[in-house]
Amino acid sequence: MSADMKLTLKVWRQKNNKDTGSFETYQVNANEHMSFLEMLDVLNEDLVRQKKEPVAFEHDCREGICGTCSMVINGQPHGPMNATTTCQLHMRHFKNGDIIVVEPFRAKAFPVIKDLVVDRSAFDRIIQAGGYISVNTGQAPDGNAIPIEKNIAGKSFEAAACIGCGACVAACPNGSAMLFTSAKVAHLGLLPQGKVESDRRTKAMVAQMDKEGFGMCSNIGACEAECPKEIKLENIAFLNRSYFKAVFGGVEE
Amino acid sequence: MYEKITGEDPYKMPMKIYPAVHYTMGGVWVDYNLETNVPGLFATGECNFSDHGANRLGASALMQGLADGYFVLPYTIGTFLSKEITTPKFNPDSEEFIEAAKNVENQIQRLMNIKGSQSAESFHRRLGKIMWDYCGMARNAEGLKKGRQMIRELREEFYKDLYVPGSDKEYNPELEKAIRVADFLELGELMMVDALERNESCGGHFREEYATPEGEAMRDDANYACVFAWEWDENNPKLYREDLKFENVELKTRSYK
């Protein structure tokens, strides 16, 4: 089972937010069974051995659910495979001798912290802007006390699959966060819990999204194509509907 | 997911299955309110030791997260906070804050100043290998003693030959990893000490010396129906035994026969 491969990496190196940054070229010996992050681990181990600075990249669960890994591989956020995060992308999808270009997610609202690590706290602030929902506390709620239609629950669940990685923003030529924000608005807005706050929440989240400096949506659809969790464009339609309803039909605050 | 990782379609090619440690039992000590021994610090979900017993079955991490969140925290955190409403804001310039910050700063400086030659990652891997070899699914007294000694030697080497690139004044994942590995070296040793102290086989803890003639786990409920809670000390971690009392059920041996 000879699955070893020699690769050339062109990696974006940027010391900090003030540095202009540039590409550096590295050779790395990998194996086709490695994940992309494991291949970068090998590179980093090698760099540390040479007393050079390893490439900073974010990672946590490495199971495709935490949304931490973020990099643009050969021009595509999370690389060439559909519905796959970088950590779940295996080297068997590359060929021995390949030249691979690795960059951070690029967007005005995602400033680079170091190398491949970007600051995605704008997403946290959008979620925070959503605020609270009213629930009765004290007694644990009975499992089936609030009936939810199957198709509604299903749609909400699909939207909730968003891991907030930011690939949608990185893929969008406008740097728009509409797919992310709409997934959150749909996930919460479809369910009966928190219906009372729905209008306020939608307006607040959209306002925060605009404030963070994300671009406008012009229905390109690159976000949906690159989303590792296959969040659908339909959510954006849902957000637009909810937003119009909240602005024109809602109660003045 | 399987196909993504292995590149093989399990509908066509039988799945490759390999026995491995899939979980480590135990966790942070908490009381019935899921509060740790630090007042106001709650440990919930799989990081605490409370719900699962000596063996954790599939999906019980999810169950524990749900159970803690649904049934325990709505009562306990609220109760804690209700008494805190009159507590004034903490002064971050107080002695305790300054001391805590200084301890962290000292640890960081200690790690940065070693300036050795090996990465935190390489120490982590070696620690993992020791744990796998001597504190794995089946363990015995001899191996545990040896493993503990090896970890102590590794820890010594860590503090002599660690290399952390970059500086402590910037985003530095290598430094973060080094701080974690320093903790893992202590936790790993504690797991060896704990496994050595428990002279029975129970759940995920299979001591080769304590097995039935058929090779099944042999519990010793008379002496070990208890939780081991540990207070860390570099040389002699302190043991607190908490007896497990079963009032409504009778302890039995599970048999698949």
The proportion of strand residues of chain B reads 5-15%
Rg over CA atoms of chain A = 21 Å
Number of strands of chain A: 7
Low-pLDDT ranges of chain A: none
Quaternary class: heterodimer
Give the CATH H-level superfamily of the largest domain in chain B. Fumarate reductase/succinate dehydrogenase flavoprotein-like, C-terminal domain
Strand portion of chain A: 5-15%
Number of helices of chain A: 8
Rg for CA atoms of chain B: 22 Å
Count of DSSP H/I helices of chain B: 7
Return the structural class of chain B: mainly alpha
How many domains make up the 3D coordinates of chain B? 2
Q: What is the C-level CATH assignment of the largest domain in chain B?
A: Mainly Alpha
Helical percentage of chain A: 25-40%
Q: Which structural class do the helices and strands of chain A define?
A: alpha+beta
- Measured between the Cα atoms of the first and last residue of chain A, the distance is 67 Å
Order of secondary-structure elements of chain A: EEHEEEEEHHHHHHH
Shape of chain B: globular
Question: Roughly how many Å apart are the termini of chain B?
Answer: 34 Å
The geometry of chain A reads as elongated
Biggest sheet of chain B, strands in spatial order?
A: 1-2
